[in-house]
């Protein structure tokens, strides 16, 4: 059967292979694409469209699917999908259409799927101020190797701005040369396979060294689970770290919505507040586009406006 004669649903595995081999996308991205596209395939089946071919997909189909996404309610809380979540589903579908174009399979062009604009105002950029960061960090009492590990994780997040997937992928051997160093820089491969350098402050590195001194094992991961089943992978999972941060958020009294990404936002916001250039922060975060980084300027611009009002309002001028 020719590729163009195969239903859209039958292209999933070839598309994922394309993402892996030709696009070089990370396994997490491929996993997400598969999940989001399976939702689209279920929608096709619900409309008796499971046999639809790539060239038969129309703008009307896309519009109907977008209406489905915007009106679909979570059965647990009866809330509709946020615009940002809807975008994830549409981005995956656009990627599939891009694959069809790359393989010379007649289909709707990807740019026919226009993403809804989400609210990227400062209220959606959740971050902690320095006082809250200090409360969160000091909520961890390093009484044993587990708490030393937890403190090292929190310190690493705020010092580097690492994404959670980047942090869990760190290995202990990457820190084998830090013995006589007061700070440390490390090359990581981030989202989209983009390399960048992250920096561990003296404080963060001190906690990491203290944690590593407690390690008597020869496990490869930097951060490992102390309680595990024999033969299982000891590398901490993103879910484990999310729950860990939630626990210390409760203990410290900082907002319960605090997540690993909140610490990444806090890292970026602090850099900008201290005078770092937006382009520099883009490099620190590993953003492909400066547009992604600019969400933080909504926060810092407000701070600058408040300073201007306080010190440069002109209210003392003689009339």
TrEMBL record:
<dbReference type="Pfam" id="PF00589">
    <property type="entry name" value="Phage_integrase"/>
</dbReference>
<dbReference type="GO" id="GO:0005737">
    <property type="term" value="C:cytoplasm"/>
</dbReference>
<dbReference type="GO" id="GO:0015074">
    <property type="term" value="P:DNA integration"/>
</dbReference>
<dbReference type="InterPro" id="IPR002104">
    <property type="entry name" value="Integrase_catalytic"/>
</dbReference>
<keyword id="KW-0131">Cell cycle</keyword>
<keyword id="KW-0159">Chromosome partition</keyword>
<dbReference type="InterPro" id="IPR044068">
    <property type="entry name" value="CB"/>
</dbReference>
<dbReference type="InterPro" id="IPR050090">
    <property type="entry name" value="Tyrosine_recombinase_XerCD"/>
</dbReference>
<protein>
    <recommendedName>
        <fullName>Tyrosine recombinase XerC</fullName>
    </recommendedName>
</protein>
<keyword id="KW-0238">DNA-binding</keyword>
<keyword id="KW-0132">Cell division</keyword>
<dbReference type="InterPro" id="IPR011010">
    <property type="entry name" value="DNA_brk_join_enz"/>
</dbReference>
<feature type="domain" description="Core-binding (CB)">
    <location>
        <begin position="6"/>
        <end position="101"/>
    </location>
</feature>
<dbReference type="GO" id="GO:0051301">
    <property type="term" value="P:cell division"/>
</dbReference>
<keyword id="KW-0229">DNA integration</keyword>
<dbReference type="Pfam" id="PF02899">
    <property type="entry name" value="Phage_int_SAM_1"/>
</dbReference>
<dbReference type="GO" id="GO:0006310">
    <property type="term" value="P:DNA recombination"/>
</dbReference>
<dbReference type="InterPro" id="IPR004107">
    <property type="entry name" value="Integrase_SAM-like_N"/>
</dbReference>
<keyword id="KW-0233">DNA recombination</keyword>
<feature type="domain" description="Tyr recombinase">
    <location>
        <begin position="123"/>
        <end position="309"/>
    </location>
</feature>
<dbReference type="GO" id="GO:0003677">
    <property type="term" value="F:DNA binding"/>
</dbReference>
<keyword id="KW-0963">Cytoplasm</keyword>
<dbReference type="InterPro" id="IPR013762">
    <property type="entry name" value="Integrase-like_cat_sf"/>
</dbReference>
<dbReference type="GO" id="GO:0007059">
    <property type="term" value="P:chromosome segregation"/>
</dbReference>
<dbReference type="InterPro" id="IPR010998">
    <property type="entry name" value="Integrase_recombinase_N"/>
</dbReference>
